[in-house]
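Researcher: I'm preparing a figure for a lab meeting and need a structural model of a single chain. I don't have an experimental structure, so a prediction will have to do for now. The sequence is pasted below. Please return the structure as C-alpha cells so I can convert it later.
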Amino acid sequence: MNMVEAINSAHDVMLARDPDTVALGEDIGFFGGVFRATQGLQKKYGAHRVIDTPIAEGGIMGVAIGMAAYGLRPITEIQFADYIYPAFDQIVSELARMRYRSAGEWFMPLVVRSPYGGGIFGGQTHSQSPEALFAHVSGIKTVIPSNPYDAKGLLIAAIEDNDPVIFFEPKRIYNGPFDGHWERPVRPWAEHPLAQVPEGHYSVPLGRASVMREGEDVTVLCYGTMVHVVLASAEAEGVDAEIIDLRTLVPVDIDTIERSVCKTGRCIVVHEATRTAGFGAELAALVQERCFYHLEAPVMRVTGFDTPYPHSLEWGYFPGPVRVGLALHKVLED
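Model: Understood. Here is the structure written out cell by cell.
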C-alpha cells in the first residue's frame, strides 16, 4: 500500500468495527477526498457516516466537537493544513479543554486529519507545517507518520484514543518515500518494506518513537518526510547516524531520545517548518536539559526558514540533502 491507501484502510477498518465512528470534511464523500484518502467509503457506509461538508473549517470542527460530546468518534479532514486556522479557535478553546473543563466527565475522542508540508510546488498556501502550534496546546496529541505501515497503525490508535489527536499527513510522501532529490524519478512505496500493510486491524502506540537506523556518531531527530531525507543523507555522507522517527510529537518519546543522545553525544533536529519557535526548539531544549553532560557539541537544527514557503525557491527552502549533509559533518567537527 501507499500512504493514501493505508489511511483509507484505517478508516475502513474503524468504520466497520465501530458504528459510532463517523468521518466528515470537504469533498471526502462522493469525491473521495482531494488526495482520494476516503475514496469509496461513502458508497460503502452511507452519507450519514461519511459526510460531505461545506467549505467552513470552523463549522466542521464545531459540529465534530458536538458529535464527540454526544458519544460519537468523528474523524475530520481539513483538506490542507494551511486552511486549519479558521478551526483553530474551536480546537484550542473547546476541543483541547473539554476534559479539563468538565473535570473528566466529558472526553473528546476526535481526530483531525490534514495533509501538510511542502515539496509539491504548492507555494505559501499549500505547503505549511503548523505542527508546533498544536504541540503547544495542552490537551491534544500531535501525530505525524512517515510511512504507510505507521500511517494506518497510528491513525487507528488515534481514532481509538479518548483524547483529541491532530494527525498531520506529509503529502509529499503519499505516493512514495522522498529523499530530497527532487530531480530524480519518484520511487513508489511498493519497493519499500514499510509498505507491507496488513489489511485488518492493528495499531501503532502513540507516544513511541521508532529508531529507523542505529548509529554511534550522532542522533538525528526527525519526522514525516524528513525521515527519508535524513536516511538518504546519512547514507550518502557515510555518517554513522542514529536516526529517530518521532512519529508522535505530543506525547514525545523522551526516553528513546535520551538513550540515543547519551550514547552518541551529539544531536541534530530536522524539520520542514519555520525555524523560530518550531518544534525543533522544544526538542533542543529537552535534549539540553536531560543530556547536557553527555553532549560533545551544541544541538543543531536544520529547518525551513522564517519566511512564507516560496513557490519559486522551493528547493532552497526545503531542508534537503545538502543542508542535512553539511549539518552532519559540522556537528562531528565540534
